[in-house]
Amino acid sequence: MEAIVSLLWGKNTDVLRHYVAHRRRLVLMPAGFAGSDAASARPIQEAGGAVQVLEMLLPEGRIDEIRADAGRRAATVAHVVEQQQWPAFSAQLECEAERIRGLLTRKLEERLLPELVLVEALEVARRQHAIELVVVNEDVTSLGKTAALWARAHEIPVVHLAHSEILGELYTVHREFHADAMLAFGARGTEPYRDLGIEEQRLPVVGNPAWDRYEAFVAQRATVRREVYRHYGLNEQAPLVLFGTTWSARLSAQDICDLYERTVRAFLKAVRIIRDAGIGANVVIKDRPANAAFGKAALDAIAAETGIAPDAYRYATADTEALIVASDVVVSMDSNLSIEAMIAGVPALNYWDDRSWTLGPFFGADDGIVQATDSDLAAAVAGILTNPGFKEGVLAGMRAQRTRYDAGSGAAARVAETLARYARLPEQAHPDGQPAYPWQLLSMEQGTELHAGYIDQPRSELFPLFGHAPRCVLDVGCFTGATGAAIKQRYPGARVLGIELNHAAAQVAAGRIDRVFERKLEDLDFKAEGILPGSIDTVVLADVLEHLYDPWAAMLSLRPWLAPDAQVVASIPNTRNLLLLLGLAQGQWRYEPAGLLDVTHIRFFTKAEIVRFFHETGYEVTKMTAAPDVRLASVVGPPAGAAADVDLGKIVLKGVTHDELEELKTLQFLVLASPNGRAGNTNAEA
Amino acid sequence: MGAAVGPQESLIAWKTQAWTNPRMVAWYAARMHENKGTNRLKNAVEVELCRRYAEGRRVLDVGIGTGRGSIPLLAQGFQVTGIDSSQAMLDRCRQEAGAAPIELLQADLAGLPFPDASFDTLLSLNVLVHFPHWRGVLREWARVVRPGGVMIFDVHALDHVEAVARVHGVPVDDLLAAERQTELYALRVRAEELVNQADALGLAVVAVVPYAAVLGGGNRNFWLDGSRASGYLWERLLSWMAIDEPLFAFGRFLEESLFAHLTTETTGRFMAVLRRKSDRAANAAWLERNRRLNRTLASGGLTAATLSGLLPGGLDAWREELNGHLCHRRNLLMLAYLCTAFAAFVEPEHGRDLLAPEHFADVRSFVRKWGLDRAAHAFVQSWHAHEALREPLTCAGVPLGAGLEYDLMRDLLDAAGAFAEGA
């Protein structure tokens, strides 16, 4: 079944419901996110989707092993960090290296564990399901960011659905943008991202699914109000003033630590002035749910200082929509509550603390939200409560700007459809004819037909490299199996296994060699396929390594399955090719449908780097031959043992020896390598 | 149609015709009236310059528009004639002038229907900026000004863009890419080109007043690119000038009492005041002074010593006024934002000579904290890239260090004492 990975919060469950309603999908999510508990899973299931908590994909006991792994990793990090000084940073931060070391290793095991669990669960999920999309509610904290980077590593589209409308500057960790796109509530919420240079097309405006609920609340305003008044024990004869607390994220040096207290104090001071003026009003202070345990006591202490009795206001940590809809005025600071009041048709005031301005004003003068400072907050609240003309002016200003903040109700369905547009396309045949540019090949679906760039020919030029007759061969990227068939013909009794992602090619190969796996090498479960450790004695990597994102991991993963005398034969394009050097000197590095700059190449090697590559992954190159680049046949160099300059016009290579010139004239290297007996040691010694 | 028209001719025709559209007129008039964003500041600075430099009695306002430059002169006894290519605009101007006597004619700015030497003052606000054939236009304008009379007009500064391009290491063409579209065309002139044309037409430089340092919007100050004084963040701050009087007054102070005394490289726009009198020596001296000052500003920066030679009222009074403005906290922030743009030219320590100790400490603290944010963020992003950490901090190709950044950022800022100060 096709699947999406979702790190959406509970408030966005509706998005998932809409998503699966139009396409049956499995929704995979870590515990704690929308769909992971029975209540939020139900609407998704009722809409025809399935849910799976990611952690549950891990076998029993695996978490303990991962914890042990996290501990080992943390210890290695601590060991490396111990050697570091970071003099420049120490000076800039005025913080001793010793102190920094302590911070980097503090709680490291604890912090790595959830990331490792997530990545491993995602890897299991990827092997079991076709994951078409990853969606996150933010991509800066540990899990959201890790999921986004995992998606990027596997070229799975990742979309960030904003969890609040960003009004002010994005500072420090918030300046990173890891998703393919961020879905914004309104154009206003894209501005801070535009300030970072993020292109408009990566910031589609779709609205906030969590605000869809306001429509029903507003339609029932009288009932909602009655209910709120009853629930909070408010005086029915008096209006309701709602205050939303703020907090300091401590992610910028500009943050003010006592912002919470300062803003509450300013609000309560205004409340006292209003009451002293004889204006009766109910007051509710809406605090963050995270503060529920201590918030009321903290507020009471501040109220006492301000001369407000603890029973003169009510404390709330939930019911945001109902409270806003029931209110006569909403006061908050640099908060989305002002936007929600805008949607609910309730006058909002933004309290303006001059000290907080170092992160920039969150609202401009034309932004539709009235600002009040210490000196005029009480007057502004009183004006809204007692002067209908003033109140109407405030509301008119808000109405005029609303569409800048919010794309309107029905956002959950819009978001779901927008996400679907980003999801990886289902299999479809690529259009007829050749594309205009080589890179268009990348977006074409591979696997449904034979790629014209590859030919159904055995790579028999690799055979002379064999040090012994192959017994059990793994041909990675075997295409139509022509090479394997030639091996079987030349070495009767040899068993050939092939790996090929192109379905059409794999089908042809299946008729020629013993087994074909249509999987990526890194996804192949050798054990499950019945391959015994130490059983493969020959690996063919014909033009494969340069196509892998992580060829190092591929080499490491092969090791356990190789026989002690295993031989790895590979052909690898030469990046230190005279024509490439010259092209680069002329400012060109133009990808082509095939050849040295095949557009699907993502890794580039030179002769020296090939040797290093094998060495670092636990192999040693024992033989290397060169396939010459026929285009360079006419370049003549010094005799063996001598050196000369090679003049290519734009560049002159100095003191080129005979051997070096041969290397420079090489199209690709043919390599024989063997495991070096350091199995399991992944540390480079260089 | 039919006849082949060159790109320059079609641009001129477009710019001339645009204002005959009644909807464009209404939009422009609304913009002039609405005290939105920095319109109010721009208007105040430009109108004040017209008032200061207008002479004699007879004033011609070329491209009079809604009359914002010359209607205030009526009250001072000037006799104003206005021309505009757009009758709709003239109707609007008549409405704005009310009962005051003003002569209005539909005419082309490059073919004025007046005999030679008809006026004491010619003024033209935001007109020449639209036209590439400015040299010819100036010749025509000079014709109708009496010998000894003055011409007041604004253009965008090319020196400014070239200096920024040099310092920021960006091609001029990249900076001007937007303005190269017809709809956004903006005439840019170098100080030297202006002086050469003045010499050729027998005009002497009375004043060249740089402005639009902090106007934002379409009046881009290229020095501010990439600093905190740019983008939506800066526009949000500037927008408060419309209703925050002390912020407006500070914006005006920056424009009129600081940038106005600097050079054509420092701001994106300038008001030129030329007298119809041949004086090549004076023009050359003015140009030399402009060059010298550019060099001083580029190398040593804006020190108290440099400033004291530029400020007509003397340094002490200026300093007192500046520090008075900075008691308003938003002004202090605006200054700190600007400092992030001019950090390369203004030694932080020079601020000590100009700012009251408490303001200096505040600005320095803002700037230090922004620096701390940058350094701490750079560190949390980079420490885990160390080669020996790649293996323990990578899992299935996913860098694990990135996921640690958020928590580390808090810890690091805390350890660096970011929250201790002022708590």
Considering the chains and any ligands shown, give keywords for the structure:
heterodimer; A: 686 residues; alpha/beta; Rossmann fold; 4 domains; seven-stranded mixed β-sheet; six-stranded parallel β-sheet; 21 strands; B: 423 residues; eight-stranded mixed β-sheet; two-stranded antiparallel sheet; 19 helices; elongated
Report on this model:
The complex is a heterodimer of chains A (686) and B (423). Chain A has 686 residues and is α/β, with parallel strands linked by helices. Chain A has 23 helices and 21 strands. In chain A, α1 crosses α17 and α11 packs across α12. Chain B has 423 residues and is of the alpha/beta class. Chain B contains 19 helices and ten strands. The longest helix of chain B has 26 residues. Helix content of chain B is 50%, strand content 13%. Chains A and B meet through α3, α4, α5, α6 and α7 of A and α10, α15, α17, β10 and α19 of B.
**How far from one another are the termini of chain A?**
45 Å
CATH domain class name of the largest domain in chain A = Alpha Beta
Give the overall shape of chain A: elongated
Task: Report the oligomer.
Answer: heterodimer
The total of helices of chain B stands at 19
Q: Largest interface by residue count?
A: A-B, 76 and 67 residues
The class by helix and strand makeup of chain B works out as alpha/beta
